[in-house]
Amino acid sequence: MSVAPDYDVDPDGPQSRADSSDRTPLDAFYGDQNVQQVRIEQRVTIRISPQRQSNRNSLLAQLPQRGLRTTFEEREMERCVPMSGISGVQTGTGNRLLLFLRDDRIVSINLERACRARDFYSGFYIERSEDGQLCVGRDELQSRSGAKCEVERMRQLVAVEN
Description:
By secondary structure, the chain is mainly beta. It has a domain at 45-60 and 68-161. It is built from two helices and ten strands. Strands 1, 2, 4, 5, 6, 7, 9 and 10 form an eight-stranded antiparallel beta sheet that branches. Residues 13-18 have low confidence and may be disordered.
């Protein structure tokens, strides 16, 4: 049994009918629907991965040799860092991650209490925000294993000589 389509299609094309000179082939498909808006959404996800061991070793070899008495102190900083400035990540203890920035700063990030830094051993994903910043209290990091954690605190680590 054959079913006829419920729209009128002229096999000779639209020019054969006087009243259909302004119709297009898609008019038969859409009927009298008016499509007036098209919405395109774009989603960008950024992956931050740990620095390769060879890169870390070569960077450490270029540093001047200092005494082992250098310690790091946390200092207040702005609530956001540019995502494009992050060059690598390393896990810390508890719920803390260390971000290595391209301008040679080290930033300590505390994740929400239920999160563990070890879930982020292979880096993290973050969705690019409109301002291109990673901010405290706003952005969530997603580990490659699927854990999602909000950034609760951000501090800069500064070398202090004893």
